[in-house]
What does this fold into?
Amino acid sequence: MATVELIYDPDCPNVRAARRALMEAFGMAGLAAHWREWRRNDAQAPDYVRRFGSPTVLVDGRDVEPATGPEGHGCCRLYPAGGHGLRRAPAPARIATCLRATNYK
It folds into this structure.
């Protein structure tokens, strides 16, 4: 089973869009939606989550949009929109592709 994680800052305006993208992606992949959420500044969060901007989606520890890379310290992350500007969250189709590429059940 793959591990899906959403890393975010509580005050990031893009978190809601990331959650919607995750729900849509799981539906596109024909899978039940299930992921773990980490607040970047939470003392209980693993150290690696602090390396990513908010929001970031990881599937099996890999960023679903590695071209944008880890952003770091307190910034809201934006994603390419296929040559049409920027998105507030990873594209659902991109997340679904990553889910399908794993042995997620």
Observations:
- The chain has a mean pLDDT of 86.
